[in-house]
Amino acid sequence: SRRERRLPDYRSAPSHSLATNFIFECGIKLGLQPATVATAAIFYHKFFKEADKNDYDCYVICTACLCAAGKSRDEPVRLRDAVNVAHNSINRGAGPLELGDEYWSWRGAVAQAELLVLRLLGFNLDTPSPHRYLLHYLRTLQEWFPPSQWRSAPIARTAMAFLQDFHHSPSILEYRAPHVAVACLTLALHVLGVSVPLASTLDDDAAWYSVFTKDLQKEKNWEIMEKIMQVYSREPEPI
């Protein structure tokens, strides 16, 4: 199908170049919440901050990160489902794996890799979620806008898209979750050409977000926004 042809060919891609695309595609197919898929990407970035990418099968580690993220977010992923979705994404058009050697080999590799990921994370699955902060900030910000203006501009959808896409970059590990959430929101407002009501009356035009986080400097906010925009210059573009 036309849609099938547009999907990445993971088998011919250079190692790890499509890793986060693979995580997002498999996460969507598994029906996971966006925050759970994003957590899997965080685990992947954390794992390979410490480990050598040449030492591990990229897609096995990605699948293991999805399983670990499911545990972290109380959205358990059945190992059999994870293996079948991963195998099907790599081998386009293939049906579910038979309960034979290939299936058990995949299953064993993913189970072992998940233990490896958990060990490298120090068995600490508590990852602060920028999604939670962004949802809270959006609810507050909505109250500042006239209802008609809020409805006419897709601020929430745009900010959430920026947040999800930023998880393709290991740079997300460098910043605190509340700061990432504010940067995604600020970038969405800039892109949509929307001004926060009454913000122009404040001494500093960035002061509107000091209600959300006191310690985010304007320069740091711009730095994070630039890192988010760099995601869109990568090849291939995020899923």
UniProtKB/TrEMBL annotation:
Xref: Gene3D superfamilies: Cyclin-like (1.10.472.10)
Tree of life domain: Eukaryota
Presence of keyword Ubl conjugation: no
Span of domain Cyclin-like: 21-119
GO BP terms: regulation of transcription by RNA polymerase II
GO MF annotation, one: cyclin-dependent protein serine/threonine kinase regulator activity
Keywords of this entry: Cyclin
Leader sequence segment: none
Family from the record: Belongs to the cyclin family. Cyclin-like FAM58 subfamily.
Protein name: Cyclin-Q
